[in-house]
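Team,

Forwarding the record for the chain on the shared tracking sheet. I've put the sequence and predicted structure together so nobody has to dig through attachments.
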Amino acid sequence: MPLIKANGIDIEVETHGPKDGPAVLLIMGLAAQLTHWPHAFVDALADAGYRVLAMDNRDVGLSQKLHAKRAPRPTAFAVLSRLPFASALAPYTLEDMARDSVGVLDAFDIDAAHVVGVSMGGMIGQILSANHKDRVISLTTIMSSTNNPSLPKADPKILQEIFAVRTRPRTREELIDRSVALWNMIGTPDGGNDPDEFRARIAGAVDRCTYPAGIRRQIAAIIATGDLRRFARRVEAPTLVIHGSIDPLTPLRAGLDIAASVPGARVEIIDGMAHDLPPKFLPRINDLLAGHLRSAEGGAAPGETAPRETEPA
């Protein structure tokens, strides 16, 4: 796994599949490392001939930590964000993180890529597709949002757990327990995860990187960037929106708002899916993504991933 220089900082990237295949850039969500991409998801893309690049966002995983930059407390910053000077309080924005993604493509001499973003990664993907149109072949957002302030909010208990970022060290077992509990709060009920394997994956992520200060800075970036519809409306790449019907962290209307904002976007609602990529629904997600990528490359009819009706936010 190479550590490359992108947008002036060090970004960890893991690659899969043939080097001469069409590129797919995977962008993870808040506090999530590249190891959170399910093996079955990545393998399906690589086996189909794609060159897969999964990256650790700044301040998470093995990518550079911006220790010198401080962020306000999330709850306080959410209130201050309404003031005109608030964005200056954030150490960086999602636009900076989109430029990180461009830097990754530059480092691998990739002219353009299919972009797949989960949650915050889907927000970054919208900005990347709007501000760097020539670098994006297609966009796929999964369980993401436009950050439209009028959208329904997440379950307050979940937000309280996410915002309760502690900078003081905790024991390894406490960290694992807390992470498992959070994923169980936002994840798909009966999603097909083996409990022991799931805990082992969480433990691996905790051992790979535990850095609460970075989570606070990423939250600040989301708050500071604000409503993303100004970017979504400028997206020209073929766009697929995948969203779970029971997502408690990013409610369904958030995904529908992306589809309503991006010209020509298609949306697929997965009944019974929450805020994760559960084994139960991975085959369907993989099929939807495969059809979308082929369509964007001109290899399939546009109706291969049939659209669902969207409702404006």
